[in-house]
Fold each of these.
Amino acid sequence: MIVCITEKPSVAKDIAAILGADHRFDGFFEGNGYRITWTFGHLCMLKEPNDYTDSWKRWSLGSLPMIPERFGIKLIEDPGIKKQFSVIERLIAEADEVINCGDAGQEGELIQRWVMQKANCRKPVRRLWISSLTDESIREGFNDLKPQADFNRLYFAGLSRAIGDWILGMNATRLYTLKYANNQGVLSIGRVQTPTLALIVNRQHEIENFVPEDYWEVKTLYRNVLFSAEKGRYKSEQAANEVMEAIKGTPLTITDIATKRGKEAPPRLFDLTSLQVECNRKFSFSADETLKLIQSLYEKKVTTYPRVDTTYLSEDIYPKIGGIMQAMTPYTQLTAPVLATKIPKSKKVFDNSKVTDHHAIIPTNVDPRRAALSPDEKRVYDLVAKRFIAAFYPDCEFSQTTVNAEVGQVAFKATGKQIVKPGWRDVYARDAANDTSDEAATQDDNAQQVMPDFVKGESGPHEPTLLKKATQPPKPYTEGTLLRAMETAGKFVDDEELREAMKENGIGRPSTRAAIIETLFKRRYIRKERKSLVATPAGVALIATINEELLKSAKLTGLWENKLRRIERGDYSAEAFIDELKQLIHQIVINVLSDNSHNAIEISQANEKKPRQRTKASKPRTPKPKIESLEQIKCPVCGNGHLIKGRTAYGCSEYRAGCAFRLPFADYPDTLTPDQLAKKMKSTKKK
């Protein structure tokens, strides 16, 4: 009997239908020599501190750092999970062979390995490795099952990631909570979560501290074309006015005309991050919403495996391109030009060296009309479909014209761009007309000017204009721009080639970044204002409190991510990675415990609470209403702000708006709880 273990019941059902296991039992399918069962994602987790020793049950600085001699796993405490695991355990015990049919990625490998370890699997194991859930792909996968050992490095990388997150997360969270939280709540710190929060907080500081500077631009209109002074910005109004005076009444003369032909290649195929970015830009979908939608499309068999970080296809996909396009019946008009000729095979699309476990996200050979797609699923599928079709269209050819001119001694320049052959842009012609996104609205109008036939030496009157402008602060992160920042370890990179090269040093993985952002929302460290991500006071305070750069540096976290990828490739060891983090947490504990600044952090009442310890002798009391957060104490002076804790005093959160309310620690000690502080303020007011 062969036992197949999938990650979801729906996948088990699909595989059972293909293998002929058509008898349904409680927790598995059976037939034709197979039993197909499933997990529900993670059934197991790393053990918690209190599972190792009683001394780690209580939060204590003296017990840090907590480093188990050997990390162990346990079942997640859930009746449904325990019931399904007992089914898997029994089936494995009765099996002759096991086939790992988990999701073909690092997380999927970790989920399955842990379940098999917990079930004490000693049977031969092979691996089903597929990039889509179509019937054809499943059949091909079962005809080419891989040895389990081929994926050991993938498992070691996933295990190293999980253990590394445990070491830093468990220890740093307890360390900073006990040292700085003043018994008000938990300071949640994570290997990827904290650097991501730091990106948002740092951007927020840049915006808040930004001082705008005025500048002036001189432009002039000649034959309905806008020319700009080549000097660009003038820092003083006087200098700009002098230019305006110098060119008044003086004709504009064309001094040079240069036209260059250029080509623009189609945009790259989607990886998960670029799809999330595009969905956020066009539809305001969150990263998590996009991941759920593309996962659903994968499970409905119309798109390929989504948790990928490459924009390339492997060369073995090339023979299948025609069949995929023929199945995309709603897009017949767009696929017809590609199918009418020999399908091009570009290195910008097909490159085995850029594909490891999976290729880019593309449609499958299943007609999307056969799947019951929701409106949002149709939107995401449309993006994937058009990006796929456009990849096989010709380059867009354009003409770039630069016209130089002079007005007296002042040099001017105008540029214009004309599309000569749309090429792949034909795929998006209708979309471009309907695109109302902010990015589309802020396109440089000057670059889109259509130039008349200028003649070198021609001259004539013009209409000069003086424009006063101001430098602008950086824009707040949206989920889309934050995903890009995570992908490139905080660096702004617009070039696709360079961005591709930097992915190895990104923070987090495509499959986990959405969950990290959701965690920051859940813990109330960030909130959303329209499309912008804003750090809450608790989030800002947390980053200010963390004095270890390693815990909040996107660059350094990116280097850890690089090592995890190297573990996958086999040129770095899991042991070395774990040892490095053990040494790191030892040093962090020493550094924080030696910090005598006593800067307690104020935690929002919405954040997680550390469980209280109750002795056996204590009696339960009827809880009384308490003020648990300084945010609940309104400023008695301005009435608009709430109390916050500074270095030497309590003050009003509206201090930047001019409120000078202040309670020195000499009179109101910083050891007071919010409830005690409110009572003391009330009693002082009565006196």
Amino acid sequence: MEWWKDAIIYQIYPRSFQDSNGDGIGDIPGIISRLDHLQELGVGAVWLSPVYKSPNADNGYDISDYREINPEYGTMEDMERLIAEAGKRNIRIIMDLVINHTSTDHYWFRQSRDKTSGYADYYYWRHGGPDGALPNNWTGFFGEDCWEFDPERCEYYLHLFARTQADLNYHNPAVLEEVRDILRFWLRKGVAGFRCDVINILWKDSLESGRKRLALTGSEHYLSLEGTHRILRQLREVLDEYGAFAVGETVFVSPEQARALCREDELDMVFSFEHMECDQYFLKWFKRKFRPEAFFNCLTKWQKELAWNALYLENHDQPRSIPRFGSEAHWKESGKLLATLLLTLRGTPFIYQGQEIGMMNFDFDRMRQLNDVESKNVEKVLRRFHIPRKLRWKIISRTSRDNARTPFQWSGGEGAGFTDGRPWLGINRNCQEINLASQEEDPDSIWSWYKDLSRLRRENGVLRRGSFVPLEAGEQVFAYRRELGEEKWTVALNFSDKPARVSCRGGVVRSNLGRETFDGNLGPWEAVILR
């Protein structure tokens, strides 16, 4: 049963969702206490960012034990209770599967330092070259070289991400068997499937030096190779034992590569990044002016070329969507417009925590307020190139992953309803204006709009399973039609502070400006759904 084609999936970043014990860190009991919020939103599944045991060099994406819960988040009993309580509300739990790398605190890695142990080649170990040269010229995703010398083994290990995230060696069949057992462990506990972290880079075909690039030198040796497909097919065998779901985060993929990853014996769907790159140059840290037309054309391409899309505008790695694709001056209207886009395209929508109330980027003003390891590494690189401090901060503040990681703004009170203690990351001062409590009873709020569109989608098959027909993609207007049998619905969106005119006609199903009839004229940041 392809339940995920009819569901809306909600991503929780556990550290920032709800603290239950006053230590300033979100936790599993806190999530349980907010399940009714997710049920009211109409969520069918929750993707939980990692809650495994971890030293938190990358906030849980550096796992030291896949079968244990990070004590900061609670216990395994809490996790089992979350699965059960969510199930009572018809909400499935999707775990974050991080299997490209583990923490260097993991038992496997500690044992691999001994060349005589059974774990000696669970990771990529290599000697350096003469005169202290690294094993190759590869560069990593966090803006640094990706080899670290280990004085105990007297060799270098590969890490495409932070230096405490050592890449697993899938040339050793034992590694894949370990991962298959981890899947079974969680599936037996009742999880519905997995979101698979950077899943298209698992297989490294060689460790030869790569072609020099501005970033990710060496990536031709690991991006979307046949070896990864072989791994995914063996993981799918386990998933199929339980009828489980898998969505893969995939970096630098084309629609053709995405289709190859979405075969019935591999992944159910993938997160692609192309639409998130429309406001940047080659590197994510160098932004350019957002061009709606390029954004529309990219969305249209992926709607047409993939049988099914994973739809998202925000996640734990991306800045917030309203200041990025919408308008801070038209916060409410553009927030509703982006919700309309997300919930009316063809595919499975993923809502990131706080998106449903229009949360914004952080309001920090200095580096020491950040926690994100990627941001800190990039700042070091920029400093090495003598980029002035003010420009460094401008680059980091616009792109930092911490923009989406500030605590959920449940209320305008002390701690924003997130915690009674000192929060692990600063709370945005706008929580006094932007919070759930202030929107719950307001029928015109972003929260009410998300709930309404969620219900509209659940009740109308044309929005869930209908085909996508592009109508217009101009400098400010995006219009498309969803068709299922005789049912035809049209969506028209004005991504601009200026009015616009479209040729679409029909009876108004919804308008974020509250109109009941439509004459072809769109107001600034207006979204209309027509039947």
Amino acid sequence: MINIRKLESELWESADLLRAGSKLTSNQYCMPVLGLIFLRYAYSRFKLVEAEILKNRPSRGGRVLPVEASDFAAKSALYLPKQAQYEYLVNLPENIAAAGLVNTDGHPMNSLGEVVNNAMQLIEAQSEQLKGVLPKSYTDFRDDLLAELLRIFNNSALDDVGGDVIGRIYEYFLNKFAKNIASDDGVFFTPKSLVKMIVNVLEPTGGILLDPACGSGGMFIQSGDFVNAAGMNANSAMTFYGQEKVEYNAQLCLMNMAVHGLTGVIKSGDEANTFYHDAHNLDGCCDYVMANPPFNVDKVKAESCESAGRLPFGLPSVNKNKEVGNANYLWISYFYSYLNERGRAGFVMASSATDSQSKDKDIRQKLVQTGHVDVMISVGNNFFYTKSLPCSLWFFDKAKAEPIRDKVLFIDARNYYTVVDRTLNEWTEWQLRNLNAIVWLYRGETEKYRKLLELYRQYIFDSLVSAKEFFLSISDHDDPVYADFDNAIADFARQVDQMQTLPDSFGIMPYLDRVYSSWKNAINSIFDDAGVFARINARLALKKRGYKNAKAFKKQQIEDVENGQSAVYANLDAIREAKWLYEKFGEGAYADVPGLCKVAGIDEIEAKGWSLTPGAYVGVAPDEGDGVDFAERMAEIHRELLSLQAEANDLMDTISQNMKEMGI
């Protein structure tokens, strides 16, 4: 299994090292490098869609019909002409002038920079919304530097991990470059798990979607994926509108949308400053509004805001300079105002906004009294790439069902997350589903909840059988030295066999504690003992052939074991999250859970001073630690130590050999 965080970091370090060795500034380097990542990502998606198109391709005269741009348009994907395909660019000869290449105007091309510029022009010709957007300054790069960048981003590991992960690397670079640009004025890019949560709760199906602070377009991408996954065509079902004051960010948004096959209308610059302009004239027209606006912006001109409208609850506090000192409630008012009579809104907001006072409190009271505040979710620290601050997710729904018309669902998710590393947390796919399940039950959508239970059941059954086969493949029943190891695996296998005899229902839940325990015992018995670890390596080594040297051979052995272990832990996560959900809501009945969720009526909210802070309603969440399983982390450290020891031994062997050759 490829360590994606490590791959992201290595690609970034290589690219940034080249920047440091060139005469280009970060600003000159930023967009061209993102353009190359765009080309790599676009090519990956192109190949995936091409393979899909060719599956049942008709033929004439014994020849399969060639793939055309219209085939890609039908699948909402970006078509790439031959000279714009990454494989073509990375395999060009060193001497471009001697290759006889011509650009779209028929003129000869004499440098790699000209060829890449031409590729960008060819892509712009395929997409109306990309015209004038893609970088075309590659002649500023020396050919050797540009060729090395193309090589770096053609890392062979990317071919093994699939389009979604390549997209994540694209987003990683986008965030790394945007960090310098977006670190001021409360602007920072939205992490994918928060975007997914917003989209999952709003459940877009069709109509107008507006993001009036669209940044790099993450809300559009995730909404498009959601609609396509539901069996519809996002471009046919949805109309995407965006406003983004920073033109650089708007370019990234258009590139991001194009590579995902989405079309939209994005306006940027001063006319797209949402504080003063409704650039698309969408007040009262939107089916969905999604956004992650800049937090706590000050010095916003009050009179200009007032004349621009979209303030159904009035202006927030204005200082003596006729400025709004904190624009959070301007954004909140805009999001509400943009909605049509059945519209839904979901957005990220500073945590302080749920309980701020003065005019903010008056606006919040009027907002709650509409009955359209739907769900409030508290999010803990370290969800953003560039900031460690907590935040809240707000949701409005103007078409709430009558039973919940004057109620609000509060979820305190500050203690519910997965640690990615020391500075970053996220919600896994299972955790996102679990939080969404609470919303379904609050809305009375029990069928969706039961389908999730069924998904858990099937996934757990399948993964348990796979894990049993993996464990048995590395178990020696006739070796007394490893009796504890083999007994743990045998116990786990018995538990799996017993579960397979259960009825085809979610009745597995009462058995999960026992299976979970035996599974962890089996894992720990494998990876907590250096002798067992070495034995597994040796057994796997017998199946391997054809490596260049012993070092490569040994590296593959360790990766094979770690792949099996990683898959096992992923399945453990599913069991853990299934238990978490079922223990709270059983077969599908909503209940307030202390420290997690509560449904409160308007009277109760009034009694709390119109606060929308989930913690004020659900109570103090129990301390569940930092989300890291101690035994699992110790096993991970143990494996890392073994790997480092092996590397140290190899290094010492190399040093000793070199010293011998030098006669020392």
